[in-house]
Amino acid sequence: MGSGYLKRITFDQNGLVPAIAQQHDSGEVLMMAWMNREAVQETLQTGRVCYWSRSRAALWRKGESSGNIQRLVELRLDCDGDTLLVLVDQTGPACHTGRHNCFFTAIREGSPEIISEVEIPPEEMYGAKEPEA
Amino acid sequence: MGSGYLKRITFDQNGLVPAIAQQHDSGEVLMMAWMNREAVQETLQTGRVCYWSRSRAALWRKGESSGNIQRLVELRLDCDGDTLLVLVDQTGPACHTGRHNCFFTAIREGSPEIISEVEIPPEEMYGAKEPEA
């Protein structure tokens, strides 16, 4: 597969681009993370979603410690190429808290409110391993 | 309305946080833009979505020149508070190209492919005015 598409992506001053992961069939927005060139290429080549972990400064193969992988369905770019939309098929919870997606806090009447339940407790997902991020 | 929720949001070194706009009923991801504290507050206070335009270095009241406003349905934060998901009711196309959403380029077989049509030509949306961004 060619990599001409990389020229269409605008990476920021840190070499990163935000990537929104959306469940391909339900439309649920699961999480937002960052990719560098290598993560984009690996994602397209392997069909498994790989991010760049800013905290660990390393490639982050989603699900490598939790098993909660994201299979790539389609990668899309926005109109100015500085944001990616990654359509995925998510296995298990996407969030390190064990919730299905990361956007479980709503602002209602000016106050944060938790609106979804933990599906799998983190200690069960990760055991003694470091939670992913 | 209190603004205690602001403490839950992690703004980056430029005082900005990425905000993903999603159509509340269909689940369509419309666009990604940035908000500063003032934009978040204005959005919650007025119920109309306001971003921060990095190119113009000014508040960007979505739809102010095109009429294609976003009514706020709910604002959500992700697990570490550094990304917002804005559930909206979008009037007209969200994208400055006149397409309904900004993610109209898919990478297929390693090549970019346009996958959606222009609904309203930009010159019709903006007339002699500057396209929004």
Notes on the protein architecture:
The structure is a homodimer of 133-residue chains. The first copy, chain A, is mainly beta. Helices cover 11% and strands 34% of the residues of chain A. Chain A contains 2 helices and 8 strands. Chain A has helices at residues 37-46, 122-126; strands at 17-23, 29-35, 50-53, 58-61, 70-77, 84-90, 105-108, 111-114. Chain A has a 4-stranded mixed beta sheet with strand order 2-1-6-5, covered by helices on one side. In chain A, strands 3-4 form a two-stranded antiparallel ribbon. In chain A, a hairpin with a 4-residue loop joins strand 3 (50-53) and strand 4 (58-61). The radius of gyration of chain A is 15 Å and the shape is globular. The mean pLDDT of chain A is 94. At the A-B interface, strand 1, strand 2, strand 5 and strand 7 of A face strand 1, strand 2, strand 5 and strand 7 of B.
